[in-house]
Specification:
Layout lengths: L4 H20 L2 E5 L5 E4 L9 E3 L10 H61 L3 H22 L1
Antiparallel strand pairs: 1-2, 1-3
Helix pairs in contact: 2-3
């Protein structure tokens, strides 16, 4: 038997159909007599089965698509990292500005306390007033030392 181009084409068509036939098979769902749900590519005879839609497999992605997607993901991660660093620097700058403002307020309170007590000392004061002054000044100095230096 001689293979002519038309016979060869028919053979290839038969091979392709034979290979593709299982892929074209449907998926069915049915309940048995006990009420349990079953799935398969062929329902048993005499059972009412529901044909389920089968989505075809997505087309294969090319290497160029995969590489492009990897590069886009890398760019996105780099941008997210840069935004995160930028936000961290802004938070640090705000915290430093707040610390400096707080320290200048504490320094001002210390100057006011020293000035006020110097005026009282010139007019005379009791030991209880001296202890109160020292206590407040020590507490203020500890606060300045812990948060400002």
């Amino acid at each position: 038997m001689l293979l002519t181009p038309s016979r060869c084409a028919r053979c290839w068509l038969a091979v392709l159909l034979a290979v593709a036939w299982p892929a074209m098979a449907g998926v069915y769902r049915w309940r048995d007599a006990d009420g349990r749900m079953h799935y398969g590519d062929q329902p048993p005879a005499g059972v009412q089965a529901e044909a389920l839609p089968v989505d075809p497999a997505p087309p294969p992605r090319s290497a160029a698509d995969a590489e492009r997607r990897l590069l886009e993901d890398a760019d996105r991660r780099a941008a997210d990292t840069a935004r995160g660093r930028s936000e961290a620097r802004r938070r640090e700058a705000r915290a430093e500005a707040e610390r400096e403002r707080r320290c200048s307020q504490l320094d001002e309170r210390r100057r006011q306390l020293e000035t006020g007590f110097a005026e009282r000392r010139a007019r005379g004061y009791t030991m209880a007033q001296e202890r109160s002054y020292r206590s407040r000044l020590d507490a203020l100095e500890r606060e300045i030392k812990s948060g400002c230096r």
